[in-house]
Amino acid sequence: MSKIFTPTNQIRLTNVAVVRTKKAGKRFEIACYRNKVVSWRNEVEKDIDEVLQTHTVFTNVSKGQVAKKEDLIKAFGTEDQTEICKEILKKGELQVSDKERQ
Asked: Which part of the chain is the Ribosome maturation protein SDO1/SBDS N-terminal domain (predicted)?
């Protein structure tokens, strides 16, 4: 009798909002809490740790692909992930799920 394998080691991020921007021909994304992004942009939320799920800049959040240091320096002029996250939060576009569009 065959068993069905169910992955138990996958970590699912909940309430994830992806904020993305394009710079120097590359795409950069950050994983945030959806409700906190709006608060941050309205200057209600001041603590960036409350907004970001992680202080990591990705090229693709859903695949977990982290942006290369050289690309960050070329696009943003710094490798300081927190400063880059702040810039992406300010200027990037917030991705909205299908359910929220309706």
From this structure: 15-102
CATH of the domain at 21: 3.30.1250.10
Rounded Cα–Cα distance for residues 15 and 79 (Å): 27
- Is residue 2 a part of any domain in this protein? no
Give tens-digit pLDDT for 79-98: 999 999 999 999 999 987 65
Query: pTM of the predicted model, to two decimals?
Result: 0.78
**Contact yes or no for 83/73 (Cβ under 8 A):** no
CB 101 within 8 A of CB 95: no
Residues of the domain holding 42: 16-96
Q: Read off the pLDDT band of 10 (50, 70, 90).
A: very low
